[in-house]
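User: Modeling request: complex.
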Amino acid sequence: MSATASLPLATAPGRYRGGGLPGFGLSLGYTVTSLTLVVLIPLAVGLWQATDLGWGGFWHAVTQPRVLAALRLSFVTAAIAGAVNAAVGVLLAWVLTRYPFPGRRVVDALIDLPFALPTAVAGIALTSVYAPNGWIGQLCAPLGLRIAFTPLGIGLALIFVGLPFAVRTVQPVLENLDQELEEAAATLGASRLQTLWRVVLPAIWPAVLTGFALAFGRGVGEYGSVIFIAGNMPLKTEIAPLLIVTKLEQFDYAGATAIAVVMLVIAFLCLLAINLLQRWAGRRAGLA
Amino acid sequence: MSISARHISKSFGSVQALQDVSLEVPAGRLIALVGPSGSGKTTLLRILAGLERPDAGSGPLFFHGQEVSGLSARDRRVGMVFQHYALFRHQTVAENIAFGLAVRRRKQRPPRAKIRETVAELLHLVQLDGLAGRLPGELSGGQRQRVALARALAIEPRILLLDEPFGALDAKVRKDLRKWLRAFHERIQLTTVFVTHDQEEALELADEVVVMNQARVEQVGSPQDVFDYPASPFVIEFLGNVNRVAAGISGAALQEHDRLYVRPHDIQIQPQDVGGSGLKARILHIFSAGSVAQVTLQRLEGGEILEAEVARAELETRQLHEGQLVTLFFRHIRVFSTSGEQRWIHNALAPAGTK
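Assistant: Request completed. Predicted assembly structure:
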């Protein structure tokens, strides 16, 4: 009799699914309010400021060669750094989850350091190491390889600040990946490389994309660490955030926000594309 | 193909998982490794698959007379079905089944059309026609299991290994799949070893049962053998319900430390004192929802609790009810003496006149 008495209880969660969880109105209200105050209003003000220029003035402001070069530099270096971070991130996450070597915890903790470090400190440190007279810079100089004060240096700084994102998104997924999958692949005759390529990578793909998106997003907006190592030569090594700051210092608020708006739109489109790709990959990985 | 494993030991750190275990499986048989969790049965299966290495000093492992101890899992050509199936979630059912063929070196890899044909045949064999394009997440537990089986069979394995094949399924599906697997084995005649902790499953399904306990093999034999002639107290306690009976049974030439066991269906209940050497007991509880009634009894002498099974019809003709004083007779008693000797005593406790 006790079995039948407990039946209604067992079906209850199904009946309440959807709007049943208490506090929906309150939590959504809070979310929307804070999102509006912190994100939407500042963005709207930015957009509104840009309208001071009028359409013609806006177009003129953002199509200047110096602006276009800065935008291209920012997005291309961020994309490349994001890709490098995704690859290195997978490798690091793999090493940290699969090999119990001494000092693993120390390495694990070191990964987060770029999060905590003021970015200017990172920029200064990287510059002193990679400048033509720095430790590594002077080794590269005879080979004709200049790192600091070139786009290569910018990429390096972006890799440094973005690495934790890539590692930290992939690591938990790799940790939770069922070892039986790899064993199944082995009994079916797959080599380690085939297992990695056909079984492990597809399973962690969505996480890798997230890591890439985060590192890329951070890279596009990064300012502090880059300005020291970039050299900041207009048309060559001047990044878009720096150009915005420069315009602000010249009290050209409308010009600064015009560039900001363009960056915002491009960044939004990139992240949207990554998100769609991720959803597709997620469905393939059986997560959706 | 036959399997022969000799003197296999395996330890994980300080935990001994297998201790000098030997296993002989004739070709084409269906063998169950059965035992409680932690008895080493899964470890033995993983050693057969090449996923674990036995400790140094272990004997060789042969498939069909050929030594495979040195071969990796990849080269052993063993079909393995994992407890949770380990299907590749991002691949369709067809891609999962084709995996073992698709990863072969180019020279040994069948052409694409041939692979497709093989996949279709296997899907038909496991009765999943039409599901080739589904993802594992869209299948039921029983279907996933059969996909895992088809995937393992695609590489034309020399032996088939199943780890708790019904462990993750609900009771109804379990029963159906059990019958299906038995019939399936009759058809493909592939040497198969499966692991289970469910003694009923092992006895019903296997040609031969290997009972394991605490890293050792306790007994090997046909289901009939191990059930009728359990070799140790562990085996009789593990395979089916059994009552351990304290001493105090007269006329059976017993020694002091002998362990006595009586199966519930070997206890006969007489409603009144009918003479003979029966034990006096009281009926505590009768549970009669089922084909046989479970009767809980308490011996008057010593207060020992015994479980008996009585046919429903008998329950009625004898008019048994809770609280009643009755006399018990044991049809068969299994005796294990401290010297390791074991025997049955038949009708040691019988109503007067039947002896």
